[in-house]
Amino acid sequence: MFGIVRPCRHRMCGKLHDAWLGHLCGLCLTLRDEHGHRARLTTNYDGLLVSVLLEAQRTAPVGYRRAAPCALRGFRSADVLPSADPGARLAAAVSLVLAAGKTRDHVSDRDGALRIPAIAAVADRLADGWAGAGARTAGKVGFDTGTLVEAVARQATLERELRPGVPVLLATEPAETAVAAAFAHTAVLAGVPGNADALAEAGRFFGRIAHLLDAVEDHADDVARNVFNPLHATGTDLAEARRLCEDAHEGLRLALADAVLPNRSLARALLVREVGHAIDRTFALAADSRPAVPVAGPDWSTIPPSSPDQPGHPVSNPTGHPTGPPPARRPEGCTAPLVVGGACALVTCTCGLWQPPWSKHRKSGCDDRCWCTRNCDCCSCNCDCDCCGCDC
């Protein structure tokens, strides 16, 4: 799973959370139905926003279908967007093309096991297949993925022009252009062309936020590995990056308000409130650089992050003493990178349901392992939803 919009079920009422899950599972199943099980690896949290926006513009109710129990839902059934729905197909096409671009980016950076030429070659072929599959699915809904492909290709050229003093927004332009095109096409599919400009503007702001948050999240690791990062390349500090994100978030809110959306509740919850939470969460994690408290006894430096979906955060114990048996150690030795990389891939492919031996969630129930339903520990608030449909 990829993406910045990952709603917490305690921050969203059951009705909206079920609707979000219906779009997420609908996207996953559309990828399966159109291109086979392997294509489900490209399921993208942010990609489903296009199907959410299309539904928001419709006046007639969308015909959901009942999906069979799935391990990724904790073996529960659900009402999901059907694979033939144009919103699900557009979301699938966008997810495939963006996953292809992201994979090629990882190959270029020689991340992890991709340093091995044979594995990098396989990843390149996989990316080519995803790009072609995305183009075929997009053609069924009249969307030209050329804009997305060209934007991804232009990214590398722009990155070579970045240097201290150059505005970091130069690096975000391709992402802004790609998302704007996808968002605007939902107006065409919905038969509301008057929404195209407002949704394109919303897409540009969302693309900017997504690119900046990705750069903030990877900043420390990229600097340590001497890998390109737009913030580091342009000398942009976290305070300026946050200002840019908050300005874009306000622009996103205003652009969304300008669109005619008869069913705006879920779209507004995801694009306004959840994006705001993503900004707060990302910058809070980036600023939290406190080292782990030294503890006598086992070598705690080999203990991995406390949660596989919160990378880069060391396990710490505020009391200074172990509070139980130490967790299982992460594999060591010459094959450790491949073992850990494979474990991360399995966790991602199963939406968190499978957990490696060193994960604190390994023996938890399905709800606490699955990312779609896991209890959130980022807030203690009650439901704050838009079920009333108002814009307050």
TrEMBL record:
It comes from the Bacteria. Residues 296-332 are annotated as: Disordered. InterPro entries: DUF5685 (IPR043740). This is DUF5685 family protein. It comes from Plantactinospora sonchi.
